[in-house]
Specification:
6-stranded mixed sheet; 4-stranded antiparallel sheet; Pdz3 Domain; alpha+beta; 25% helix; 297 residues; globular; single chain
């Protein structure tokens, strides 16, 4: 990775970046604000969920991908980005200038639902994940919900040790994941002891958690086939600020399944289509709730 990519990678693991603090996506063919983060520059500037982004620094967003938009909106702290925003009910966009800031994103979010289900959403296995997850565990113990939904959709992975820590809350004994090294040496990880949601964006550490809980019968897996990243990598930082990713092993599920380029197959396959997304529907979450509350298969 070149220095810029290396910094972005480190920022992702740290859960920080410099930008305006808004989740964006494509809806009905246009770039929109999904949600501004609380107390972020985006929220303070008045951006709201559903606002359409017409242009970024004067460049039209027509045919612009989400990744391209993110790279243009992000930038050094205390610098300015100009967004032309079309709000609901308006016919003409207005330019909003936003001063970028340091954005801190928590990798674990929790919700105690009215139906007595506890939802834990883990977006990455980052530097803050273990501490935040342990707080979630305390909350779960205190509230004693009827069921737990672990949402790992679009979670690209992160630290192996953190994934093991998460899975160990359900697996009281036995191997959670094993690493098969090039020299055939195997390191088994033992630790102490629910619907898991996955999709095509769930990779690496996410698949470790889903695979372990599936193999031990500790959770039902719902969603779509996961990404299939079964390699273990280390990062070597170089003097010029760049870094090198070195693959040193492949990991397998407790039953010895190598998911590299295969992924985890859900117990119940349910898609979330673009139409569902645009209509604010989530059939995957609905199926998880049904499995825990309604007893439906």
């Amino acid at each position: 990775m070149d220095p810029k990519e290396a910094k972005s990678f480190d920022d992702d693991l740290a859960g920080t970046f410099e930008g305006i603090g808004a989740e964006i996506g494509i809806k009905k063919g246009g770039l929109v604000i999904i949600a501004p983060l609380p107390d972020s520059p985006a929220q303070k500037a008045g951006l709201m969920a559903g606002d359409k982004i017409i242009s970024i620094n004067g460049e039209s967003t027509i045919n612009m991908t989400v990744d391209q938009a993110v790279s243009k909106i992000r930038g050094p702290k205390d610098t300015e980005v100009a967004l032309n925003i079309l709000k609901k009910g308006q016919e003409k966009g207005v330019e909003i200038k936003i001063i970028r800031g340091l954005i801190v994103v928590n990798s674990v979010k929790t919700e105690m639902r009215k139906d007595n289900l506890f939802v834990v959403t883990i977006t990455n296995f980052n530097n803050d994940t273990e501490e935040l997850f342990n707080k979630a565990v305390e909350e779960i113990i205190q509230k004693n919900p009827k069921g737990i939904i672990v949402d790992l959709r679009n979670n690209p992975g992160g630290y192996l040790d953190t994934a093991i820590t998460v899975a160990s809350k359900w697996v009281d004994k036995g191997v959670i994941v094993s690493e098969k090294f090039g020299n055939e040496k195997k390191n088994d990880y033992f630790n102490n002891p629910t619907v898991v949601l996955i999709n095509q964006g769930s990779a690496s550490a996410s698949e470790i958690v889903a695979g372990a809980l599936q193999d031990y019968g500790k959770a039902k897996i719902i969603g779509m086939q996961s990404f299939g990243k079964g390699s273990v990598q280390i990062i070597e930082n170089l003097k010029d600020g760049s870094s090198l990713k070195i693959t040193i092993a492949q990991w397998m599920t407790p039953k010895g399944n190598n998911i590299n380029e295969k992924g985890i197959t859900p117990d119940k396959v349910i898609d979330l289509t673009q139409q569902d997304y645009e209509n604010n529907k989530d059939p995957q979450m609905d199926a998880a709730v049904d499995a825990l509350v309604g007893g439906k298969e």
